[in-house]
What does this fold into?
Amino acid sequence: MSGNRCEPDGNENQGNGDQGNGDWGAFASAQDAFASLTPLIAPRSVAIIGASDDPTRIGGRPLAYMKARGFRGPIYPVNPKRRTVQELAAFPSIDALPEVPDVAIIAVPAPHVLENVEALGARGTRGVIVLSAGFAEVDAAGAKAQEALAAAARRHGMRLLGPNCLGLFNDRIGFYPTFSSSLETGYPLPGRIGIVSQSGAFGTHIFTIARNRGLGTPLCVTTGNEADVTIGDVIGWLAADPEIDVIVAYAEGINAPRRFLAALEAARAARQPVIMMKVGRSALGAEAARSHTASLAGDDRVMDSVLEASGVLRVRTTEEMLDFAYAATARLYPPRPRLGVITVSGGAGVMISDYAAELGLAMPPLPEEAQAALKALVPFSAPRNPVDCTAQVFNEPALIGRFAEAVAGAGYEALLAFFSQTGGAASIAPHLRAELAPVRRKHPDMLAVLSVIADRELTRAYEAEGFLVFEDPARAVAAIAAMGRLGAAFTAPERAPPPALPPFTRPASLADEKEAKDFLAALGFPVPPGERVWSAAEAVAAARRLGFPLVLKLLSPDLPHKSDIGGVRLGLGDEEAVAAAFDELERRLATHRPEARRAGMLLERMVEGGVECLIGLHYDPVFGPVAAFGLGGIFVELFDDVILHRCPFGIDVAKDMIHKSRGARLLEGARGRPKADIEAFALLLAKVSALGAALGPRLVALDLNPVFALAEGVVIGDALIELRNAQMGQNEG
It folds into this structure.
């Protein structure tokens, strides 16, 4: 075989978008890349290029906001036409500045941005925020101009936010390099939630709703076209910020995917939740994302699998995003929490139970002894779980504490108490608080949630006593389940390494099933014995060597899916059947695809029994090689039950993929079927993932369907491997 020698260690290109020196641009590591954002986000001094005396213009708003919020460092307006701007001394040029600013805001027309970036770089400025639009979001000429900006920033060792961004704000230091009008309705509240968004308008939309809900989001960064700084860089920076506990993110596409993945891993290591809205799920949405910020949306199912594997909570609505962010501020993430429920409404208890079941939350019954004790207190209560204490507790407020302590003391990791509007009633709320507060103090590690309808002041009082408060119990259940997913991600054991493959040479091509199986066999993959035959006589002779029963398949580089023309014959039990099948397939090829190039036929020992499964690979344009598992044969189309995971991975991840599939029950021996060798199958799946990582950008797709999961071992029934030519696949770094 021709091609490059390959050591399949999984370290080759896993996606596109990272520029310069390997994975991290000009930086030695992802952490260095993230830390380099400090002059952008938390500078000591700032210059405003194109500063305006009008506080409502793009060049005037940042200065007005920073003056209003008391930015702690010097501000240098640059405007050659004015001596002062908004009562601050102005400077005619960048060269005239009295010191080198940490960061500069550029608010000038697009044709003049590059000259200012060059001038700032020459002065030694460490960061630049380009508010100006008219770059890659517009046309090819704009994309070329944007590339020039990025190249200039790299050359000067300067980080560049934007272009076409709304800037950011860091209220902790009064830094407001943004022209967002959302600040006219109020500034951010103190708190520990950080926002990062590719869309400026949507990022400030998140901030505004959060502020109106009383959530503190003192830091918001919008990345725009991401010529240099990406959403991943900002997540990485926030993950290291000791004053941020929760990160919420809005993304249309993922640039620099390695830094993005490294940032998610840094956040998980710091037990810092990342709650992300990734849009572009539909084909229409993906196209809109490209036209908006020139981002590549990627395959949404791959995105789902990558975010799940990284411990990210993916959300579909702003309400859900902020619900989860609010719940995460409690910093309680019980893995796989058992939920105890107290309710004054039997109907609400049923509804809560339904939602909990849908979301995988366990609601085990209260211990028998505790049930008996509560039944003695209120004979008509239903104390199993949900615990319906009935409205009687409002006649005897002391019962509230007894019921709450019974549930909390039973060891549930999460408690949800439904009191609805009664929890906000002036005649009841003081008694409710008096009974619940001691229970909360006694069980500080329990995630405690109230479903009450109350005014802002009373809600804040409940929160001050350690409760999360939701009006809607369904939203409360969803938030509890989300905290459990975070807990599972934060406590997940270290993953097993991918299995090693022997060194191999990347083939120039694999034209048909026989070539694909020979390649796989050389790497130790389980394929059935088989021979390429060119005539009926050769087929009969091969049959004597292979033994029966046999399967015969057409081979042609122009016929990857030979079953489309009936090009497979199964269950050939003797020599006469083999010869007849050969002649029949020759006729079918001549009739249906006379133009197809002949490559003989493949005669193989037929695999009998087992469960037909699918293992696949494809090269995702964002994240690189991705493996797929599902039931094979006709089931893959009937059930659309395919589990994806980015390559490479170890046997533990492979087993997780198998058990997530609805088809896992067949492998586990459902309805009296023999159990399949899941260990052997998982090893094969992990080895395929290692192969995908080793092939890197040369890979287009690999399709093993069916793969027979047997009681002992596993066998690849059919194989199709499509590769790019060597020239197209050489850029692998």
Q: What stands out?
A: The CA atoms of residues 182 and 251 lie 20 Å apart. The two ends are 23 Å apart (CA to CA). Confidence is low (pLDDT under 50) at residues 1-22, 288-297, 728-733. The domain at 339-490 is CATH 3.40.50.261 (Rossmann fold).
